[in-house]
Amino acid sequence: MERYLAFLPAVCCSFVVSAQLTVTTQLSEVQVTDLLEGLGVTVTNVDINCPGDALGHFMGASELGINQGIVLTTGSAAAVAGPSSSFASSGAMTAGDEDLELWVGQPTFDACALEFDCIPIGDTLEFNFAFGSEEYPEFAFSAFNDVFGIFMSGPGITGPYSNNAENIAWVPGTNVPVSINNVNEAENSVFYHNNEDPPGQYLAYDGFTSNLPVFATVQPGESYHFKVVVADVSDGVFDSGVVLEAFSFHSTAASVGVAEAQRPVWSLAQDADEVFVIWPENMGVRRVEVLDATGTVVEQRVSNGNRVVIHTGTLAAGMYFVRLQDGTVPPLRFVKR
């Protein structure tokens, strides 16, 4: 696809449906707050700084694997609703973002930024996101390396960006930020989906990442500031976007990176792809449930003794909670990386 095609007029509307995918634009700050807030966090001071209808509510089935979320784009959020044979692009050439420019060392345009404060109840904070672009796959490893960042600042964080923020949107298992040049068919391909082969039916972007988890160590009860921003690089055409999964901002009181999380009368220990749950024999527990971050039961185990082993190899990366059948003690949490 030639780059000059990007100057064709973009479709702009407040409500677009593509088969099973719906994108609604013109969201209020209250609506955004409701979509961000998950278990164990308080979200305040939402500030939307996006031109036109670049931000929207993403909802429904699609190839992306996120059924609901907030989408920030470098063009029109409504244009995200596919199929992949459609073309999401604008040529607005509005202002870029200084933090993204500091990272990539190139001029940026058409920035869409969402900022908010988040207070976690525990010392671990998790959320999920995915990044997609019309720049895929042709312009990987080119100057048109559209980027985004999730910049986090607050107690205990010292980074090179505004307000000493750090970009925490990394490729899982690395310290490499997610971008077109860092996640594609040749680099970190396990996290990349080519939406042209086979042609996607519901999402316009020609390529996108998996639903990726972010884990951050925080201080309980303290306020942290987030700036989520996406921008075009080198030119203002061929849209890109980032989707924050709805309600995925979660915090728990367990310690991140620690093998054992202790609570009165029962315990949880994690080793590779197994989680061991142990409780006193006099509790009479017979069933243990595993819930994902949304509260959905994804595993159940029955025991005639005082322990069970949960095999986590088939679970997606993210935060999970273990709940005993009797419900008299608070659940424990573990992280599948």
Give structural notes.
- The chain has helices spanning 29-36, 98-104; strands spanning 15-18, 21-25, 41-49, 55-60, 68-73, 108-120, 124-133, 147-153, 166-167, 192-194, 207-209, 212-217, 224-233, 240-245, 250-252, 260-263, 266-271, 274-278, 287-292, 297-302, 307-311, 318-324, 332-336.
- Strands 1, 2, 4, 5, 7, 10, 11, 12, 14 and 15 form a 10-stranded antiparallel sheet that branches. Strands 3-6-13-8-9 form a 5-stranded antiparallel sheet. It has a 4-stranded antiparallel sheet with strand order 16-17-18-21, with no helix packed on it.
- It starts with 14 loop residues before the first strand and ends with a strand.
- The chain has 2 domains: 3-252, no CATH class; 260-336, Immunoglobulin-like, CATH 2.60.40.3080.
- The model is unreliable at 1-15 and 254-264 (pLDDT under 50).
- It is mostly beta strands and 337 residues long.
- Strand 1 (15-18) and strand 2 form a beta hairpin.
- It is built from 2 helices and 23 strands.
The gist of it:
This protein has 337 residues and is mainly β. Helix content is 4%, strand content 41%.
Notable characteristics:
337 residues, Immunoglobulin-like, mainly beta, 41% strand, globular, 10-stranded antiparallel β-sheet, disordered N terminus, 5-stranded antiparallel β-sheet
